[in-house]
Amino acid sequence: MLEGLLKKHWGYDSFRPLQREIILSVMQGDDTLALLPTGGGKSICYQLPAIAKEGVCFVFSPLIALMKDQVDNLMKHGISAVALHSGLNSREIETEMQNTLNGKYKLVYLSPERAATKLFRSYLANIPVSFLVVDEAHCISQWGHQFRPEFLKIGELREIVPEASFIAVTATATESVAKDIISYLTFKSGYSVFKKSFTRDNLSYLVIRDSNKIKRILTIFNKTKGTGIVYANTRRKCEEIAIALQKEGISCAFYHGGLENDKRSQIQQSWMDNRKRVVVCTNAFGMGIDKPDVRVVIHFEKPESPEAYYQEAGRAGRDGLAAYCILLADNDSPKELWNNFPTVQQLEHTLQCLYNYHQVAFTAGKGVTYPMDLLAFTKNFSISIWQVMSSLGVLHSLGFVKLNEQLFQLPRVKFIVEQSELYAYQVKHPIQDMFIKLLLRSYGGMFDHYAAVRFGDLAARQKCSIGDIVKQLKVLHTDGILDFIAGEEGNTLTYLEARPTKVSFDKKAYLLLREREEYRKEYIAGYEMLSEGCRENYLLKYFGEDRTETCGKCDICRLLKKSKMDSDQFTVLVNKIEKLTLNKNVDLTTIVSTFGTFEEHQVVEVIKWLLDNEYLTKLNHTYTWTRNQA
User: Which of 147, 56, 152 is nearest to 109 (CA)?
Assistant: First the structure.
């Protein structure tokens, strides 16, 4: 039965490792924690049992883009699903909850904030629930890299549907995070935990140090085949890199949250269809995308954490073939990365400015969402964009405010009369009749739910102006025939608690967040600076895996294999070269002659590696040590 559903809806003949065991656990009604590596097929572990079991499966997910991607993919596979998110208004939410009550959907994706609302809980009590899913479950733990306090409310749903089981899935949970997930979701005795090694045998982890990063990216793509991703930390940097690559003949596009929704969808699809080879993007790109043939993922700068790096780099090689995860290293000291966590004073100042910006009265504002123009805010209060963004992240984790994903919401339309009443209206209004027929031909299901409409497409089909389309929609809305919700765009900010008369922060929680942030930055800086051991093992250790054998594929392992040295010999040789060339200009012959116990080719290979990673600088046939090791 399970293999039949897998073949019917996803086209696969067999399950990936652990998928079948996880699905059987869910089918049996056991609380289940699934720790699978990026690209390990987590979604099928709950989507397949959701269609196999009676009732509705509710999936709590932190990202709107991720929810939309999942629902779109399910609909393509013939599975009824819907996403309820902050971009929908109360009328739309109510409509889709009623549709869910009437059995229209098998899977309902929603934000964790929805779990705490009275409306959702009242519906949940009357809906047959198959089981509840917490996606990206690391967000439930303060030790997780994306802790979200609203996730803590999800466990309370156990009181409303005590018979329903939980399945929590994540690709980035450490041991302490896994314990928190089990505790906060109040797993029942007899629960199951499935953990697959985070090892990805087909990936090669490489760190390359090059002062000219653009030139290095060009070299990489000219030497490799297939599609790729380049991650950068800012929108401006994405655009600069993409333009530079385009000038050199690389087919690429940039992607970030500042682009309109249609534009982002267009870029994503052109890359998925191989019409664009490379996407240069911020971390806004990639969630929910499962493109199998990505051969290279390059990070132009250090990612924010080992979890983020593992997740983003892990988008390479999902077809199981060889792929490369490359970090282009910087020459700054790890210490320089630790000073960007906002102080308590900065947090308090930013929060007070937010209250004033939105004119939130004391003891008011809880649960209210306001438009948020980040650039206008920073300008009005003379706060750097860095302080605003970093403070908003910490304020979210401390339970004060939440900056919602930037939305580019298309206009939506739903008929609010029965078909017989609509027909009578069409007979009396021939002009509107033509437009109603256009809507019905263009979009399905408009009597049951809101359909997103594109004015340009409708205008082209009707051979009229966009103004004419909007005018007709307003007429039908005024006449009570349909509900018309205008499109909207931009960030919004939600206040999670009422404005206090005196702002104070939980000092213990603040210090914990800062400590964890500094540890993550230190760890990813250590990965970048690593000059001995194995890069993959270093990453695995962060997630609690102590592997003795080396990967044999990272740049350090390759060097050791090529030079026929072990890690200890390599360390000795590097330390001697540093001592020999520090503050001196030394020629190759002198360096090689110093190492009587090493063969000449071993010393030469190490020197090449040190040059590539800019430990050494070569000038007029002499070598000088240029930077410190980790």
Answer: 56
